[in-house]
Design goal:
Largest sheet: 5 strands, antiparallel
Protein name: Phage portal protein
InterPro entries: Phage/GTA_portal
Radius of gyration: 34 Å
Distance between the termini: 92 Å
Pfam family, one: Phage_portal
Amino acid sequence: MGLLQVIKNKFTPQQSRVKQVAKFLDGSIPIFSQFGEDVYASDVVQTAINCIATECSKLQPKHIRIDPNGMQKNVKSSLNRLFKFAPNEHMTTKDFIEKIVWLLHMNYNAFIYPTYDIINGPDGSRREYTSFYPLNPKQVDYLQDESGKLFIKFMFANGQDFTIDYSDIIHLRKKFSVNEIMGGGAHGQPDNEAILKVLQINDTVLQGLDKAIKTSLSVRGILKINTMLEDKKQEEERKRFEEAIKNNETGILPMDLKGDYFDIKSDPKVIDKDTLEFLDNKVLRYYGVSVPIISGDFTDEQYQAFYEKTLEPIIISLGQAFSKTIFTKGQLDHGNEIVFYPQRLLFTNTKNRIAVADILGNRGALTNNDLLQLFGYPPYDGGDVRNMSLNYIDVNLAGEYQMKRAGTKSEKGGESNDK
């Protein structure tokens, strides 16, 4: 069963409820069309977004619970099963996250629809989530019923439309500013006006380079035939001249008295390297990506800057948006949340991994299998044990330990004085 059929089966009954276009405080009409393909014709834009999406695809989403003492507890739930390998039947977790980030940068809005079953138990009913689907609608309308409850109407490229409770949709926004509910510009669309100017200049430069290269490889000279020849004879003379060019190895063309050759000095003007790099860097800076990140030749400091400026806001947004929609207020109050862990992003080189293993491993924060995984080795039976260095002590025991040590020294000193 396809996604659209799943949504149709689940939400068709709600179509009978009376709804009207939602009213916002600024008086705007909340009808938005997803549009933004223009800038993605640029290879620089695609490279920048692909870099961000690929890095984010390394994230590890998990359902955790924070206890009253602030300690994190792992939770055995259907969510962790979905997030570990495949959030839906069509995508792996990596594909799923990459798709979300691409949609977010293309449309400045990303919608994820979670499917679930209602499970009735002794403590009441609960939702058991069965899949998560990224959506790519062509138009989005916001509606509300008589009670003021907000609904979202998706219209897709095949002409189908579905109206869904907005609280059931995971909604991520980029550049959430002037519009009350959508990311992007005032009309809920990608605000690409600034970057389009740079891309137009860049395109003009590239077209100029293309024409300059073609010009330099086209007409190189004029052959003047000093006799009156018929068209057929001129064609034969031209072919003879071209054959002389092809067969020539010395750079000197033998000519008879009938023809003169005049060389055309081709001097096409091209844009200098600095200008080209300036245009590319301007686009990359717009998306928060630097040239070393694109090429993969970055230092730890450069990657840390990329992570903090570009990746971390997306990671925080993902965790908060998923948690807000998936869990009820009561579940949130009990510490349930979705966290997208960036472990595979931060520990990218061997030096950082060794530092993490040394700090966390010596304190018993990682199991032996965790340490093996950190360096790409498989786990072994019995490896889920934690070892710690005896050079560290519980902070609650440190004071008691020091007092005992002080008392021992005092007793030894007293015996020495008596003697």
